[in-house]
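URGENT: need a sanity check before tomorrow's submission.

F., can you look over the Efflux RND transporter periplasmic adaptor subunit record below? I want to be sure the sequence and structure line up before it goes out.
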Amino acid sequence: MYRSLLFAALSFSLLLSACAPSESTEQLEKPRPAVMVQPQVASAQQDFYPGEVRARFEPALAFRISGKLQRRLVNVGDRVEQGQPLAELDTEDLLLQLDSARARLTSAVADQRLASSELGRHRKLLERQLVSQSQFDAVETRFEASDARLQQAKAQLDVARNQAAYAELKAPESGVIARRMAEAGQVVAAGQGIFELAADGEREVRIDLPEQAISHFRVGQPLTVELWSQPGKSFPAQVRELSPAADPVSRTFEARVAFTNKTTGIEIGQSARVFVPKAVATDVLQVPMSAVSADNGKAFVWVLNREQQTLHKTEVTIGAYGQEFVPIFSGLRAEDWIVAAGTHLLLEGQQIRPVDRMNRPIDPDRALAQQD
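C-alpha cells as predicted:
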C-alpha cells in the first residue's frame, strides 16, 4: 500500500514538472503593454513654459546703518502693513552716541551763552571807547565761532537721533515677506538685504526661456497665462521684460509676463503656465521627446504594425527639440501609431499590447487616440 502511494505521488510530481515550462513559456510570450500615441500636427499646438506668480515690485529691505541684528519680528509669508516694524538692531552703541551728542549740544549752548554775554559787554565798552576795535573784533569772532559750534552740535544730535531711529527696519509699503536673508544675532552691514518684500499691486509671471527660444520673444508680445489652481481659465498677458543676459548656471533667460487687465484671486507663489502660439505655417508632425531614440547617429521611432501588433524601427528626420515635443519632417504619417515611452526596452518585431497613458487598452484602427 505504501509503495503504491509513493509511486502515485512521484508520477504526479513528474506531471507537474512537465507542465511548468509550458506555462512559463506562455507567460514569457504574452505581449507586453506599450504606451502608444499618434503624431500631432505641430501647427495646431502651443508651446508653454512653466512659471511662478511674482509681484511686480519686489524691493530688498535693508538697514541704513550697520550693526548686530537683535530681533527679527516677521517670518517669510507674513503679511505686513506700511510702517510696520520688521527687525531691530542692537541700539546700545547708538544710544551712547545719542547721549554724547546731547552732551556736546549742552556744552555748545553754554559756550554760546558765555560768548554772547561777553560780546554784549564789549559792545558797551566800545561805545564808551574803553576797549579798542581790535579787542571787540576778537570777542565778536569768538561769539561767531561758538554760534557755529552750537549749530554743529544741533546737527550732530539730529544725526544721532536719526541713526537711533534707523535701528528699526520698517515696511515701506504693504505686502508679503517673500524672502528672509538674515537672522537674529548676525552682524549686518549698511545696505545688506534683510528681507524681500512682495509689494501689493500688480502681479506677473516669471518664466525661464531656453537659448533657442529667446529670439522668438519680444517686449509687448501677447501671450496667454493659465494657473494650475484654475485649470481651463485663461488670462490675457504680454511680455513686460526680457533679460538681456543668460543665467550663468542654468543658461536660460528670465522673462516677466504681466497680466493685461486687473485680475483677482491671483496669489504670490502660485504655479502658472505661459502659452505661446507657434508661428508654424506648415503641417509638420510632432511626437513626444520620449518617443525618439537614436542609433549610430540616426533618429528613429518604433512604429506599430496594426495587423500583426508588432513593432518596427523606423528612421525619421527631426528638427530642433522643444519643451516636450520634437518636430518630424519625414519618416512618419499622421495615421501611424508609435511607442511613446520605454523605447530602450523594445526589440525589432516584438509583439505588444497597445495601451494609452492611463493604461487603458486602445484600438489602433480607430481614427484618433485618447492621448491624455
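My own read: The helical segments are 2-28, 92-127, 133-165. The chain has four domains: 30-44+282-355, 48-56+201-277, 64-89+168-197, 92-165. If you see anything odd, call me.
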